[in-house]
Amino acid sequence: MTARISSIRRKTRAHRAPLQWAACVLLVLLGTLPASAQMSFAGEWAGRYHEDQGDRVPGDVQGDFTGVPLNDAARRYAETFDVTRVTLLEHQCQPYNLPHIYRGPLQFRIWDEKDPATQEIIAYRQYLGTYQQWRTIWMDGRPHPPEYAPHTFMGFSTGEWHGDILTVTTTHIKKEFYRRSGIPSSDLTTVVEHYIRHGNLLSHITMTTDPVYLTEPYVTSEEFVLMERGNQNWLYNCEYAMEIPKPKNQVPHFLPGKNPFIKDFANKFGLPFDAVFAGADATYPEFMTKIEAGSFAAPSRTARDAGARPQPQPAAQGEIKIFHVQGNVYMLVGAGANVAVQIGDEGVVVVDTGAAQMREKVLAAMRQLSTKPIRWIINTHADPDHTGGNETISQAGTTVNGNPAAIVAHEKVLAHMSQSSRPSTEWPLNTFFEDTRDFYFNGEAIFLYHFPSGHSDGDVFVYFRSSDVLVAGDLFVTTTYPVIDAKAGGGVDGFIAGLNKMLDIAVPKYLQEGGTYVIPGHGRVGDEADILEYRDMIVIIRDRIQDMIKRGMTLDQVKAAQPTLDYDTRYGDPTAFVEAVYRDLAQKR
In what order do the strands lie in the sheet containing 517-520? Predict the structure, then answer.
């Protein structure tokens, strides 16, 4: 048994211990190497597969969690992951992200872009044959984008030379996986790479930090060989299609403890399952003595991995930041909730107005964008952090007949505002009761979609068709769990229905990123892939709680079972969300 364990460890994780030593040596070299002429990485490179060929080319066996310093949240995610999820429409064309893509079969091309006058390198460009990904490594000292900017699968990269070593730092990476077996990566990941060339051999070392799913940096290495003849032939057009008809709100996953494939890898190689699932502990040599002594224990389901919850926080109220989303649409950040502004020759349309204490700063930011009259204000729901500036923004605008700018919302929003004794000057007096409303302004069609029983019963999201921007209100946020306001008619199934409608509208530009952009109620700009991950999360948690209710569990028992464990490190305290979902489903039952 010990010999077989040692063999498997060499095959699947032989790089781990040497790399931890190599990383220390590398840090010393980075500080001591003198400045010199920059090494050229230009050319086409193909993967060199040796001891890790089985992991990188045919791919990992289900249940292979070895070599990754996963925490309890990652364990829960991985053990409940169903690989058939990739058959869902919006998952079919999803590529690997940066920390994953170099670990598969890969060829890539590198070339440099130089300043015409100085011939200094501005950027390195990469084309990666797997999934046809394009990547830019900026070398001109530019900063990384603000935290509210969109994420991509390759992220945003900047590089610097340390002697002959090119060090690259990448942020703004989309959520994906470290392994196809279901070990998740998060959208808070940071990747540091080191490129080192020795003749026709290129060494690539990756150090991935993920505060959501890893207990320590995940270190990997690969080698690539310079190709004498280019052979970038992995070209294909991916169009997702409904292969197996199923409801849109059906997301394949296993309930905790019900995955029949979880031990496939351990059984195939005769390994103790608890060792396979041990995370960082099993990547150190001393773990072998624990196996030999039979003294290791299964990973604990405790709070040991949840000490710091690094989920993104809503932008602090202070100065308003302006971010151009695309087309005619901008996002104002820092108003308590995100504010969307559409500008054009006819005037200004505003979606939500932020908190009352920020109204003057919001108005000033709008005036930076346009001095045209504010014509329309749309409220996505009634919450004060989204509508507190209604009066100020409306009074600063004017309709074509000279009245203050019209405030538009679903009739339920007017009902909530009037019942809460808010001043009538803040009310949306231009209301509708049907499922959709549309009008044309600044050269594009604007659609309002009403979805009841989500965050509240008056939820509206807005679609600017020519700009191709969705404004989601609190039906989609990137900072916290969904807020279900049961007193205002909110519910979990309405949340899912609203997100599914957004998925119907959103179209990615290329392989599940870009295209239709989404301004959330709180947090960063997203796209279809981000809506999809949020939808999947809500469906999975709903299904788990539904199962617990069927088994007769009380609310306290459900909370103790941690049905949100795999997402808590990303979205924070789940108490209010779990309680709202439990009561909603229990009432329906």
Answer: 436-441, 444-450, 460-464, 469-473, 517-520
Q: What is the mean pLDDT of each run of 10 residues along the chain (589 residues)?
A: 40 44 48 61 90 78 89 95 90 93 91 93 93 94 96 97 96 94 94 97 96 96 88 72 79 95 91 89 86 64 42 62 98 97 97 97 97 97 97 94 94 95 94 96 97 94 98 97 95 96 95 95 97 97 97 97 97 97 93
- Architecture of the domain delimited by 2-298: Beta Barrel (2.40)
Q: How far is CA 481 from the centre of its chain?
A: 14
Three-state helix/strand/coil letters over 219-252: EEEEEEEECCCCCCCCCCCCCCCCCCCCCCCCCC
Asked if the domains 2-298 and 321-588 are classified in one and the same CATH topology, the answer is no
Q: Are strands 444-450 and 201-209 parallel, antiparallel or unpaired?
A: unpaired
Of 222, 166, 173, the residue nearest 39 (C-alpha): 166
Selection from 547, 572, 543, 568 nearest residue 557 by Cα: 547
Q: How far does Cα 51 stand from its chain's mean position?
A: 32
DSSP 296: -
Architecture of domain 321-588: 4-Layer Sandwich (3.60)
Token pair belonging to 490: 């909110």
**Residues found in the chain:** 589
Residue 498 amino acid letter: G
Between CA 197 and CA 326 the distance in angstroms is 40
- Name the residue ranges covered by the structural domains of the chain: 2-298, 321-588
